[in-house]
Input
Amino acid sequence: MMLLLGAFVGPQALADKVALDADDWGHPGGEDCASCHEKASPGLAAEWRSSAHGVAGVNCMDCHQATADEADAMEHEGQIIATIVSPKDCGRCHATEYQQQAGSVHAEAYALIADRVPALAHNLTGAAMQAAGCDQCHGSQVSVRGDGTLDPATWPNSGIGRINPDGSRGSCSSCHGRHAFSKAQAREPEACVRCHSGPDSPDKEIFEASKHGMLYKARHAGMNLDSDSWVAGVNYTAAPTCVTCHMGAAGKIPATHDVGMRNAWSLNSPVSQRQYLIVLEDGSKLELPAADAPPRRGSEVVKADGSIGKVKVVATPERRRQIMSLVCLECHSKTFTEGFMSQFDAVVELFNAKFGEPAQAIMQGLYDAELLTPLPFDEPIEFTYWELWHDEGARARHGASMASPNHAWWEGMYLVGRNFYSRFLPQARALAGERTGELVEPWIRQSEQHAWLGQPQQANPILGHVPAPDPDPAAATTEAE
Ligand code: HEC
Ligand code: HEC
Ligand code: HEC
Ligand code: HEC
Ligand code: HEC
Ligand code: HEC
Ligand code: HEC
Ligand code: HEC
Output
């Protein structure tokens, strides 16, 4: 084994990188797997053989090996294997990436939606849509049948927060396509956009419409995606990709498998909040609204699963923003970067004050007054409100954060304004009936943002240029003479 490795890279260099002794791979049962699978599934085997793993001698059994006590273990051609290779399994050799991924918002993506799936997927459509819809992006809770095989209602799945039979969360093959497991491929925006596209997280569309996306496409050869080291401003300067800003190394900032660290805002909520990032002593993370007082180091907080954790580090939204901005500074000036960020923040604050907060308060009032049933999605205004913040509102905020004027305005805030004035308010007023003065109007009257409704306007752009009525033809002739 050592010899084979030595021929390619040198075992010491490899061992340093993956923090593991090269003797730990090259499972004796592994070569048989490959030779039969070269016939049984040639595409898969070929991808593996030309991959960094194949080249280094990391074989099928190094990843698929299992012990008999594992829930999804099965006997296969004389070996005990598991089909699922979980983040924990990869973590045997890639401890750093595993730990960063395990503490990230990505790892929470299934847990986050568990209580919302019933209303959205099951009531609105049907249970079949969970496996083919939500779970493909967010991840499934994989269940194992008695014989160790995986329940087809929950697998195949490579969702980002998948709950694996060994309890670990996520799936590394959501970004690293198997069996190449390439880092160059994962640096492409395409690695992200299967999930980050569409109404509520339209990052694909936004990136493509931005100057960055245009340059990325035009100057792809200059992106140096195959480079071992990939530091923005050093190994490439043509354009940033999703990975550059959210995960990549830049200047003194190291690369990370935690995509949430550099985000100051929660952009996908009815009202956006700036958020602290709390790192707990057990390595898990938590986000708390910046409007609350920051928890002290060593104090106890309640985690998402209800258990108690001790605070180790608190990153303020300002600190998170600073880290994101340091990425920009590799290619832009400080004044430029700060100016851009202040334009972005102003859009989020405008959304909150003008639409997000009033709409939420009006909905709350309608529910409290029992003018709406407590059930979600059984009344038209619930769709109107949902689309206001979840689709159009998210698109506007994402568009402003990633420099697509089209998504910030036409596909975003323009639709928010249209919805609010032409659908949401009329529906809310109709529901409130004679109580509109109490349940709806105060939120509009109170806000300076809506004061324009009572003011005369200078220009009305709706009609466009209307030609003045034909003057008296006789008079016109006289004037021409
Ligand atoms: C003699 C041929 C042969 C050998 C040796 C072999 N496999 Fe397979 N394996 C197959 C075939 C054929 C299938 C597909 C069965 C099917 O379509 O359900 C399969 C299926 C699998 C699956 C998928 C099971 C699932 O749940 O979808 C995995 C994972 C797998 N093999 C890994 C391995 C590993 C690891 C080894 C080495 C220990 C190995 N195989 C050795 C022929 C082989
Ligand atoms: C670097 C680790 C790694 C190596 C090496 C590896 N696999 Fe896999 N394999 C995975 C992962 C990850 C999955 C996805 C399963 C999951 O977690 O959902 C997978 C899935 C599979 C599947 C089922 C999914 C499908 O697409 O059909 C088969 C079959 C399989 N591997 C066979 C093999 C064989 C044969 C080899 C050796 C030629 C091999 N694997 C080498 C990690 C690995
Ligand atoms: C195409 C992939 C995809 C599908 C399908 C999908 N989601 Fe999401 N979802 C995402 C992404 C990406 C985010 C993160 C948005 C962000 O932070 O920008 C997200 C965020 C969320 C959030 C948190 C914030 C929000 O926008 O409400 C919830 C809850 C959620 N999804 C529930 C669901 C449910 C329930 C389903 C199925 C009925 C579903 N999602 C289907 C990709 C998807
Ligand atoms: C959100 C997408 C995503 C997921 C999920 C993901 N990776 Fe990565 N991974 C990347 C990207 C992008 C790179 C290249 C980063 C760079 O060079 O800046 C990378 C690089 C790597 C590298 C090469 C590191 C180096 O310095 O050469 C390893 C090893 C790795 N990932 C392992 C994993 C493991 C293990 C998991 C699961 C625990 C995982 N990845 C999950 C996107 C992802
Ligand atoms: C038994 C140890 C071992 C296991 C298990 C393992 N890897 Fe690796 N991985 C390696 C070695 C060795 C390399 C080669 C390092 C190099 O080329 O610098 C590597 C390289 C990589 C790279 C960089 C590839 C590139 O393009 O340069 C990625 C990404 C990666 N592994 C992801 C994974 C994922 C995801 C899993 C689990 C599905 C996994 N690895 C499981 C040992 C392992
Ligand atoms: C398999 C689906 C999937 C893939 C692939 C994926 N993501 Fe995500 N991502 C999600 C989901 C779902 C969420 C919402 C998770 C949550 O809020 O807990 C999310 C959340 C995020 C967030 C928001 C974090 C926050 O602070 O709220 C960022 C940034 C992000 N992803 C970036 C990326 C990047 C960059 C890539 C590609 C390298 C990528 N994602 C690949 C599904 C995916
Ligand atoms: C030039 C840098 C840059 C690029 C390129 C970029 N983003 Fe972003 N992204 C940002 C910034 C800045 C924010 C706002 C962060 C904040 O909350 O302060 C953001 C926000 C997000 C969010 C919402 C997170 C939140 O705060 O709720 C997601 C999800 C996301 N980006 C995913 C992606 C994906 C996927 C791509 C590629 C298709 C991408 N981004 C490309 C800089 C970038
Ligand atoms: C790897 C280099 C790189 C990084 C990192 C980067 N950019 Fe850029 N950005 C560029 C290039 C190149 C242009 C195109 C400049 C031009 O031709 O006008 C550009 C253009 C822009 C534009 C459009 C400017 C205009 O005049 O229309 C904005 C806005 C922008 N970047 C914001 C950011 C922000 C914010 C960040 C950090 C979150 C960032 N960029 C990170 C390289 C980068």
